[in-house]
Amino acid sequence: MSNITGNEIIHQYLRHNKKFPHVLCAGCGHGIVLGTLIRSIHALGIPKDDVVVVAGIGCSGRLAVYVDFNTVHTTHGRALSFATGIKMSNPKLHVIALMGDGDALSIGGNHLIHAARRNIGVTAMILNNNIYGMTGGQSSPATPEGSTTMTNPYGQLDHSFDTVELARGAGANYVARGTVFHVNRLEKIMMEALERPGFSLVEAITPCHTQFGRKNKYKSPVDMYKWLKSTAIPVERYNELPENKRADRMPIGVFVDRGKPGYEELYYARQENFLKQAAKGGK
Amino acid sequence: MPRPKKRTEIFALGNEAVVEGALLAGCTFFGGYPITPSSEIMEIMATRLPRMEDGVFMQMEDEIASMGAVIGASLTGRKAMTATSGPGFSLMQENLGYAVMAETPMVLVNVMRGGPSTGLPTSPAQGDVQQARWGTHGDHPIIVLSASNVQECLDMTITAFNMAEKYRTPVILLLDEVTSHTREKIELPNEGEYEVFSRTVPSMPPEWYKPYEETVRGVPPMPPIGSGYRFHVTGLTHDRNGFPTQRPEEVVELMDRIHRKIDQFFYDIQLVEEIMTEDCDVCVIAYGSVARSAELAVQQARSNGVKAGLLKLMTLFPYPRRQTEKILSHAKTLVVPEMNMGQMSREVKRVNMGHAAVRTINRVDGQIVTPSEILKVIMQG
């Protein structure tokens, strides 16, 4: 793990000219995810100028404002399309797409599956808090069945998306899940995701007490973290569990690690070939 | 004196000319999604760009993604474009607004087809004129250009890129199916025969740079992402540093500036071609392929002894008001033929304010407006 202290993070990576405080509620896990991301980038020694954080809309979308990288706060659900254009235009850049669960899985679902299929060299982070937070607590595609939200006062009937399975099916190169309770593990995953070629996706489970917990039997933010602690289980151990014991557990860890080259790599290799042929006078 | 180099002549489709123009203007990124009648632009780009140094072609999953990718590419300093038709244009509106707000240069070609909805695929129409102006939400200025023949497709595409870069704004090139699917002989300009404008990049050290600072032209310099100038780009109303703000004075400052940077350069942006308008009694105001029918009608009217003229709009928005007002000092009748229910005649009536009689000719059946139709109305006076 990286050994950067809180003070160093503030001085090196947060924006001094941004009007703080931030918009996040007490108990929110988003700040932990952002801290993880910063520490991973620091540990890998990636220069700030080479990092582009492309964010969607919502609570997670606002994170881009606070960090001193190149930051683009896009339209709702479209972060991956902007990120694709940036990565293809300048493959040297480390492009990180920060999205919420509603952002990435609902309105941005098409962009997500195609970014994975295309295997574009972007690191996607889905901050999954199971709810639409900033708009006031409506159901998202990740809201668990049976839970209560502003738009599902009688309990969610829709099935909830399994982000990992979705990304795996769509062809993502690297897929992992972590939680903000298991910070060290999340940091390790994050570093791997940043280093892998092609499309990598990290789903970070982060609690929203204000909009989700309050309505769903979690009395305090602490209860939500306890829930993460008791539900999450390393995928290796999860696979050994008998079927009947899996229902309430959530596997975390690395699910896919294919190591295929990214789309931009293939594209530029082909282009170089064309240029070589042309230089030789061929067609 | 060296003999001027002969220009290369090619026999090209309107859509092909758009590609030639874009490449001459320095376009190195195309992201798009297929839709007729604009598809050839994408197909030719798919062949050309991957063989060019630094050229990137991407077929995206939809029009929304195309716009996102184009804006992303532009942020890295590239000249980027996309092309679409009616229904795709509707999908692009969301990110078009983003490009306006984040002041991202880009060119969007819309080859109009009959609508509303999926409408009349691959039949000519001019039904997206007001969508180009007001399709995205909020108050914003926009530059909309048009072309009436294949040579103009090339020239106006170069102009579109130049304006996009000069004013840090998306520029829409509205074509109709007749123009984009007509094949004509055109001349490719030689190097140096046309202007290529690229965005101003900051010259100050990165720590002094404010991404949305006031400048004389109202257009702040724009560094490529990854070049050492780290700043925040957002579709939210932002302050000079690029950070979201809701303070009224900062909101007003931004809105004023993005309007002013276009307003104060009307003379540069509003392009028209005036044909026999100096003394005309009847003036036809037309754009796109209809302007070609109109030109013939005007010539025929003249040979019939009627003082007719044509104001051909090359810029649709901001509407060339000055040039129209000049004609209003002597013209008694304005004729506005278009392939829609009257989208541009609204602008003409707004500027006319009752000075002259305004006669409209409207076709929405997927057929072109013929010279004889226009001539008939001109002769009625």
Automatic annotation (TrEMBL), chain A:
Domain named Thiamine pyrophosphate enzyme TPP-binding: which ranges? 65-203
CDD domains noted in UniProt: TPP_OGFOR
Q: In its keyword annotation, does this UniProt entry include Secreted?
A: no
Q: Which UniProt keywords apply?
A: Oxidoreductase
Kindly give the Pfam families that the UniProt entry links to this protein: TPP_enzyme_C
Endpoints of the signal sequence: none
Protein origin, superkingdom? Bacteria
Tell me which PANTHER family the record gives: 2-OXOGLUTARATE OXIDOREDUCTASE SUBUNIT KORB-RELATED, 2-OXOGLUTARATE SYNTHASE SUBUNIT KORB
* Name the UniProt record assigns to this protein: 2-oxoacid:ferredoxin oxidoreductase subunit beta
* Source organism (scientific name): Pseudodesulfovibrio methanolicus
From TrEMBL, chain B:
Pyruvate:ferredoxin oxidoreductase core domain sequence ranges: 281-374
UniProt KW keywords: Oxidoreductase
Entries under Pfam families matching the protein: PFOR_II, POR_N
Report if keyword Oxidoreductase is assigned: yes
Please list the residue ranges annotated as the Pyruvate flavodoxin/ferredoxin oxidoreductase pyrimidine binding domain: 20-255
Q: Which NCBIfam families match?
A: PRK08659.1
Family matches, as SUPFAM superfamilies: Thiamin diphosphate-binding fold (THDP-binding), TK C-terminal domain-like
The record's listing under InterPro entries reads:
PFOR_II (IPR033412), Pyruvate:ferred/Flavod_OxRd (IPR050722), Pyrv_Fd/Flavodoxin_OxRdtase_N (IPR002880), THDP-binding (IPR029061), Transketo_C/PFOR_II (IPR009014)
**Protein origin, superkingdom:** Bacteria
**Can you say what this protein is called?**
2-oxoacid:acceptor oxidoreductase subunit alpha
